[in-house]
Amino acid sequence: ARKSHSPVKRRRKAQRLCVAYEGSDSEKGVKAEPLKVPVWEPQDWQQQLVNIRAMRSKKDAPVDHLGVEHCYDSSAPPKVRRYQVLLSLMLSSQTKDQVTAGAMQRLRAQGLTVDGILQTDDATLGKLIYPVGFWRSKVKYIKQTSTILQQRYGGDIPASVAELVALPGVGPKMAHLAMAVAWGTVSGIAVDTHVHRIANRLRWTKKATKSPEETRAALEEWLPRELWHEINGLLVGFGQQTCLPVRPRCQACLNQALCPAAQGL
């Protein structure tokens, strides 16, 4: 008898359903633009800045001809110039520009180099820098910093803010100014008592700040970076001539109608 050959039914493999989703921009090789978060900025700050520039156009404040940019020997080797910039900044703390410039002139007459300072005894160094503020402490800081510069940096100064503020007697404001003047690098806004005071009077900080370093952080959050280099010199001179610590000359200020602090005077 013939065997009946019935066809064998093959099981069909279950077909996987592929669902295609629209690829994101990043998958297509196109970089997605980050969401722009609105940045806070002070009211009328651009006009206030224009007015301050106009009031400072003569460049006749003490900082303009006695500031750190004018205290070093421009004919000295680069390493010596940078050291003199740092030293002038260390002397300038709690000291008027005229006094700092006088001390630097006396130091330069003695030969202002790292080796020269280390070979000068403390009593002589004190006489040369007197009457800068806290001159006794500064004698100690200058000697300690000069020793570090000789041993670790070959007589030069560090090229970073972190290394500069690690030196005895060097604060953030000095470090940022040293980076700008000595190294030609804008690392941040140099904020001293003048900048701190004026920024709060103009309400250039989102909330009132209690220290120059807090003001620096607040300003850097919104002020365009291309303006950072000029703010220190601009506001320091403005603070020396018009926006004085006591009895500011609001009547002579172009920002009188735009300044919140002037409204209460």
From TrEMBL:
GO terms for biological process: base-excision repair, AP site formation; nucleotide-excision repair. Pfam families: HHH, HhH-GPD. It comes from the Eukaryota. One of its GO terms (cellular component) is nucleus. Its main location: nucleus. Residues 91-241 form the HhH-GPD domain. Its EC number is 3.2.2.-, 4.2.99.18. Its cofactor is [4Fe-4S] cluster. It is found in: Nucleus; Mitochondrion. One of its GO terms (molecular function) is damaged DNA binding. Interacts with YBX1. Interacts with ERCC5/XPG; the interaction stimulates NTHL1 activity and NTHL1 binding to its DNA substrate. Bifunctional DNA N-glycosylase with associated apurinic/apyrimidinic (AP) lyase function that catalyzes the first step in base excision repair (BER), the primary repair pathway for the repair of oxidative DNA damage. The DNA N-glycosylase activity releases the damaged DNA base from DNA by cleaving the N-glycosidic bond, leaving an AP site. The AP lyase activity cleaves the phosphodiester bond 3' to the AP site by a beta-elimination. Primarily recognizes and repairs oxidative base damage of pyrimidines. Belongs to the Nth/MutY family. This is Endonuclease III-like protein 1. The lineage of its organism: Eukaryota, Metazoa, Chordata, Craniata, Vertebrata.
